[in-house]
Amino acid sequence: MGRVFERKIADTIERYLVSDDAPILIVDGARQVGKSFIIREIGSRAYRNFVEINLVEDRNGPGLFTDVRTTKDLYYSIQAAAGRPLGDYSDTLVFLDEIQENGNLLTMLKFLREERRYRFIVSGSLLGVELRRTSSIPIGSIQTRRMYPMDLEEFLWANGIGRDLLNDVRGMISRGERVPEGLHRRLMDLFRDYLICGGLPYCVDLFLGSGDVVALRDVQRELYDLYGVNASKYDTINRMRTRAVFDSIPSSIENKRKRVFAKDIEGRENARFDDYREDFDTLVDSGVVLKVSCCSNPVFPLRESMKRNLLKLYICDVGHLTCLLYGYNVKPLREDIPQINLGNVYECFAAMQLSANGHSLYYSDNKRYGEVDFLLDDVHGTSVKALVLKTDRARKKLNALDALISINEDCKGFVFSNSGDIMTEGRVTYLPIYAMMFMTAFEP
Known about the structure:
The protein is of the alpha/beta class and about 450 residues long. The chain has 18 helices and 13 strands. The strands form two sheets. An eight-stranded mixed β-sheet has the order 7-6-8-9-10-11-13-12. Strands 2-3-4-1-5 form a five-stranded parallel β-sheet, sandwiched between helices. Helix 6 (about 125-135) packs across helix 14. The two termini are about 35 Å apart.
């Protein structure tokens, strides 16, 4: 990758590296989201001795860490891999990449932290799956942070829209002021580019460097297939079933109800949700899929009324979805074409942006008022935020939102659209679609 992109998780990594006795930081997430790159970039600058060990490459190559059973074995292997004298905890950082390939090292982290021989930082692409299946997780000795593809704000930074300008935009929106028309158009143009490109750093680098959509789409198809292969490799018995779930996601959000129907995954009329529960968990834990759970009673806290058998699934990167839906034709994404409904694309973007902002995701589907796209816990207000996504600002088809807030006095509605209008009518606020990047889980 040619460019060094600014990533929000950098603050977390830097704070960890200057802390004295913090639990070992584990950065997990899907492949190609930039985990190794950002850790390498920060770690190699912060420490005089930086040792990176990729356990996939080691398994397929020298095998220095294959038979490691004790911390002493590990230290010897690290020194052999480094090929040079190392220091101590104060000046040596060891980066264990793809640690899910060696379960022994995962359970050893507790002792590595206690012994303080070297400082360690860890990452993994299927680590969520491994942590769920590991019986001896070193509780209290690790802290896990999920890394997502670049969100819209990070994409805007990469396009030269700086933090100061975005802070000004944030201030305008919070005060209910309309964003100047020229700036609004620029932000909307970049938002549409984001729908095409997505947030995988390699794709962003390619897109910004050449603007070659054909090359971009070819890479996105390869990465999408890689995601399917990797997410299903953990279950050797039901590997094809897990892949079938993954491949069914784009079509599941195209149906009217948008949620997952077990009978549609493999075309079996008698299929049940429980038949695929393990596959859903594997895909979500691997980071390649985002889950939105249904709530029967949308009041704070939403988790209390979550229905385990009703959910929507989204691909973690919106660029993959638009690649699958539109291929090389990006005109539907760059132009407002009335007969093309981008609602599902907007929902995929929102799921990824809100997840990156720290939210647990819910939706509402109730006979009393219909379906609302997203529900969020408002922690500070101990209330609920109901989100609806539209490609225009018209009030039509807001019946479900209106009905929901009429029966729940603690619920506030938000409508996101392409319009630059910012206004509040009753308990419903209208915002530009790019304002979604400011809806963080822990707002001041």
